[in-house]
Amino acid sequence: MEEQNYWVDISRRRLSRRQVLKGAARVGLGVVGISILGCAVPVTTTTGGTLRMAQKSMTGQDPPNPMSGYDKYQTINMYQGLLSQDAKGNLVPALALSYEVPEPTVVVWKLRKGVKFHDGTDFNAQAVKVNADRLLNPESKMRRRSRLTTSAKSADVIDDYTVKYNLVPPGAASIFSLASVVDLGMVSPTAMKENKNDFRQRGVGTGPFEFHEWVLDNRVAIKKFVNYWDKGRPYLDQVISRVVPDQTVANTMLKAGELDLLPELEPKDVAVLKTDPNLEVQLAVATSRMELMLDHREGPFKNKALRQALAYAIDKESIAKGVFMGQNPVAQGFFAPSLWVHNPNIRGYPYDLAKAKEKLKEGGAPDGFSFTVILGTERATDMMMAEAMKEMLAKAGIKLELMVVEQAQVSSFWSTKGKVPPHARISESGSGTIDPHQIMESNMHPAWGSQPQARIAEASDKALEAMLVKANATYDREERKKLYWEIEKKVVEDVYSALEIVFSVGRVAYRKKLKGFVPSFDVDVTYFGDAWLQK
């Protein structure tokens, strides 16, 4: 294949980091092997100082077992995977120097030498195996477990710095899962044993920052790891993240200089904060989507025609303009414009009230139907979306009832169904990955998903499942693209698991003295290993 020749060529030459990243961007995850080099050093930096930021909540520091998206503000800085990603989602150096796929069901990793965990434990092939075994253990209750069990069946130590993963089934998406800090950030084997009772609040990794302090519901602090393998980094002494659930309060603190960074803004905040001469405001389209997830297990959305009626009755353009201030592009399909698998020609359902009513008749509900949407209290835009959809759907005779609960309760209600079963859920899906298989898997395949209780498409479509398996089995990017375009077309036409509304946008504001910081393509991830504070 072209990719094979390309990566063999890379392994024989010494390339700059920019050239490696260009190659990674060209082939995406459709690779057979990659040789990874070190990172470039900024021309001028200032060492020292404390970066102050805010987040809405904090729940833990164990990468394979996140309790919320906010965990990643710390874990992305405390832990590393075998590979990492840059701000555009390209694979870049981390704990592996290279990998190869000698056969479709085997990935062999060559590891970086001289790396220590924060507690002094050596990072080596045995540590990788311990981490893999931890998730592969059938008794594991960790939320990321299924990501690994649907990627690999075992890990073998070849020598001190070579480890082999045995895949099940073969698949290009496995490369990302096996190497990502999000799915398999390397945890100290010593800490696993010694810190069993408080490990979630006292994590130990190999990243540029180590645990320093945790004050429940108040703040969490991470500090510079002085023995970090990438000498000279990080530049900051410390990062303190305060819990500030109220967005208005957080905005005020940023403008007053009490915070240096606010990683998640509401759409309405962008214009106001842009007027402050001391602040930088950046927006970037992420890989995730804001969507209405639909339950196929019971209720009206078992009926395809009623799902299509819903799709015709919701004016996504109006939601994009009214709720998201025109900042978020309408999601016609699953794959964001920033991804190599994006199909610019796909078109979802347009707003068409007459066709919505036709589909209601076809589905046996000419007078409409009622359904319940569950949503959390965390994002103001979720409630705004729900209210806008409620008004739109009423014109077609469809009654939307809201079930509002605390954010932490959404998954449990969705799982158990309770006495009042929700039929749909407002959610942000697909963040944290650049691989099309992982973007779709938690909704598309009843056997997959990092959170089984959050799976939606329980109705089995054997043809669709076969298409997904085939698309994941090939390592050729262009062939993968064709197959995922077919899958995307089918799930959009059938409104198979969700109605996509808009693509997510990361909105970040920070004080201009913060340098070397590149907002991530993933709205949940903020990396500070290259950042410094100008004095």
Could you explain how this protein is built, in words?
The protein has 535 residues and is α+β, with helices and mostly antiparallel strands. Helices cover 31% and strands 21% of the residues. The chain contains 18 helices and 19 strands. It has helices at 2-12, 17-27, 72-78, 125-136, 145-149, 173-179, 181-184, 189-194, 247-255, 269-274, 304-313, 316-322, 353-362, 380-394, 410-416, 436-444, 462-473, 477-494, and strands at 33-35, 50-55, 84-85, 91-92, 96-103, 106-111, 152-159, 162-167, 209-215, 219-224, 238-243, 261-262, 279-294, 370-375, 399-404, 424-429, 498-511, 514-515, 532-533. The strands form five sheets. Strands 12-17-13-16-14-15 form a six-stranded mixed sheet, with helices on both faces. A five-stranded antiparallel sheet has the order 1-5-6-8-7, with helices on both faces. Helix 17 (462-473) runs antiparallel to helix 18 (477-494). Residues 1-42 and 445-459 have low confidence and may be disordered.
Strand order of the largest sheet: 12-17-13-16-14-15
Helical residues, percent: 25-40%
Unreliable stretches, pLDDT < 50, 5 or more residues?
1-42, 445-459
**Which sheet architecture does the biggest sheet show?**
6 strands, mixed
Strand percentage: 15-25%
Shape estimate: globular
Quick take:
This protein is an alpha+beta fold and 535 residues long.
Describe the protein's topology.
Elements: H1 2-12, H2 17-27, E1 33-35, E2 50-55, H3 72-78, E3 84-85, E4 91-92, E5 96-103, E6 106-111, H4 125-136, H5 145-149, E7 152-159, E8 162-167, H6 173-179, H7 181-184, H8 189-194, E9 209-215, E10 219-224, E11 238-243, H9 247-255, E12 261-262, H10 269-274, E13 279-294, H11 304-313, H12 316-322, H13 353-362, E14 370-375, H14 380-394, E15 399-404, H15 410-416, E16 424-429, H16 436-444, H17 462-473, H18 477-494, E17 498-511, E18 514-515, E19 532-533
Parallel strand pairs: 2-11, 14-15, 14-16
Antiparallel strand pairs: 1-5, 3-4, 5-6, 6-8, 7-8, 9-10, 10-11, 12-17, 13-16, 13-17, 18-19
Helix pairs in contact: 11-13, 17-18
